[in-house]
Design a protein that fits this description.
The protein has 397 residues and is mainly alpha-helical. The protein contains 16 helices and 5 strands. The protein is elongated, with a radius of gyration of 28 Å.
């Protein structure tokens, strides 16, 4: 074991220095500009899922009789226009301090509350992050005026607040979607670099010289962690550069952006951790594929199914956006290949930290398993040469 770790460290140090100190590392740092362009196009995968999240409602603090008259008027508008574009109401019984109840309802997350209506039937009052002439206020005025003269005055008083749970939930879902998409494309871009590097060393017979000095398993683990270290370095550079651009364009820097549920420092740390897990899972797979190929054409043929599979996994992980506790989201968090993407989205929307501790431990277990299997296959195939046999004729080594 000591010899294995020493050999892995030597290979990792060699590959890391060769990568970071090369002239092409600058172009490597500029690489994410290209997947970001594609990310805008493929972002619709997560957007379609985000649209299916729990829709916000307008909380109505009123008696059952007053609320029923309001609901009848609302249903008439829904039949005439479109139910999807008409306000959704949810009744709450008046209780205690009206101001405290209003504040508590605006902070509610299940379901997310867009605004709160009080004072029915005589003095209707709307509170929330809505404008007096906005769509929510205009719809409510029409619904009140249409309520068959039940309400004494359709004049609606609007009190603007800074935020509500509905607006905050939407912003956090957007943050999770952006982080998930960036994580997917960065991992896919960086892990494929292992393939070209391995094929080049195989064609130049360099890998045979290195394999004579260290165990093959050390070669596999060292290469994987060297590229991970270089990729994390690039990720830190990109994050720092992005934060600098945001700070120069917007007052307050990251604090001016919609904050994730766990807070920016924890969220950025989790992004780096989940990037490492996602990279190790996918990089071990690509490195194992590269051991089976001897030409660039073979690499492209073998990696194509894995790339398309990653797109499907990305779509599976996107089910967590807007609904982190749904059955599909929990299944995506349990599936090892989609777990890092799913948990990044969860960190943006759910403030709980214990699910991340459990998820990181679960992913680390699968990383160790895949590294074990990948190193075994790598050892059996990387040094083989000569005519190949059909897979059904291969004998056990």
């Amino acid at each position: 074991m000591k010899k294995l770790l020493r050999g892995a460290f030597v290979i990792g140090r060699r590959d890391f220095a060769a990568t970071v100190l090369s002239k092409t590392f600058l172009f490597f740092l500029l690489g994410p500009l290209f997947p970001l362009l594609f990310g805008a196009a493929f972002g619709g995968i997560g957007a379609s899922v985000a649209n299916s999240r729990e829709k916000p409602v307008v909380a109505v603090v009123a008696s059952e009789a007053d609320f029923e008259r309001l609901k009848v008027s609302r249903d008439r508008f829904a039949d005439a226009i479109d139910d999807q574009h008409v306000l959704r109401f949810l009744r709450f019984e008046p209780a205690g301090d009206a101001s405290a109840q209003e504040t508590a309802l605006l902070a509610s997350r299940s379901p997310p509350v867009e605004a709160v209506v009080t004072g029915l039937p005589d003095k209707p009052h709307l509170a929330g992050p809505v404008a007096p002439d906005g769509s929510t206020a205009r719809q409510l005025r029409l619904i009140l005026a249409d309520a068959e003269g039940t309400y004494a005055s359709p004049n609606l008083v609007v009190s603007h607040t800074d935020s509500s749970s509905a607006a905050e939930s939407k912003d956090q879902a957007t943050t999770g979607q952006i982080a998930q998409t960036a994580l997917f494309f960065l991992t896919l871009l960086l892990s494929t670099m292992l393939l070209s590097q391995l094929v080049e060393e195989k064609s130049n017979k360099i890998i045979e010289v290195v394999a004579a000095a260290v165990p093959i398993e050390s070669l596999f683990v060292g290469k994987l962690f060297a590229m991970l270290a270089a990729s994390v370095l690039g990720l830190i550079v990109w994050t720092a550069a992005g934060a600098g651009v945001i700070a120069s364009l917007k007052a307050g820097g990251l604090a001016s952006l919609p904050p994730p549920a766990v807070g920016w420092p924890t969220f950025l740390a989790l992004i780096i951790i989940y990037f490492a897990m996602n990279y190790l899972l996918l990089g071990a797979l690509f490195l194992t594929i590269g051991a089976q190929a001897s030409t660039v054409r073979e690499v492209q043929t073998l990696s194509m199914p894995v790339t398309f599979g990653q797109v499907l996994i990305f779509g599976f992980g996107a089910t967590a956006i807007g609904a982190p506790n749904s059955g599909l989201a929990l299944a995506a968090a349990a599936f090892p290949l989609s777990s890092p993407l799913t948990m990044v989205a969860r960190a943006a929307e759910d403030p709980g930290l214990w699910p991340h501790v459990a998820a990181i431990g679960w992913q680390a277990l699968w990383v160790a398993l895949i590294l074990r299997i990948g190193a075994t296959l790598f050892r059996k195939t990387v040094l083989k040469s000569g005519p190949r046999r059909a897979w059904w004729r291969l004998r056990r080594a």
